[in-house]
Amino acid sequence: MTREERNQLIEQYAEGYGEVAAALKGFPEKDLVAHPIPGKWSAREIVHHLADSETNSAIRLRKLLTEPYPVVQAYDQALYAVLLRYNTRDHADALEMFRTARTTTHQLLTVMTDEDWTRAGWHAEHGLYTATVWLQIYAVHAHNHAAQIRRLREALDR
Predict the structure, then answer these.
(1) How far apart are CA 120 and CA 102, in angstroms?
(2) What is the average per-residue pLDDT within 36-61?
(3) Residue spans per domain, the chain
């Protein structure tokens, strides 16, 4: 990956929170827990997922940057949604947690050296896991969920 490509992904990562916040703007409160698309999360569940995913991803990157042979643990996101009762808890603090974790991680991304980008660990499910792979995954993650929130809203408006 070139430095320019990496910088574009870093910028996309930085814009992720704004995309999610924009998708949630004006979302009817009563519909935040609705499941208008069978088998898909509600908007509230997506926000809680983003908070948990972002905090996990923040730790993953920090492990890659600081540990000599980091092992990156996997987690069951569907199990999180059920056992952590995503749809029964208010999402405002989760949204703030997502924003804060993403902001502080973005600060790290902007000061990483070329050597930092080559650091690697081992992901329990996916094998070799580098900081570059991390960025490729998380640069689009929030955007994908913002699009999912928009699809939920469209389904509710039908």
Answers:
(1) 21
(2) 96
(3) 3-157
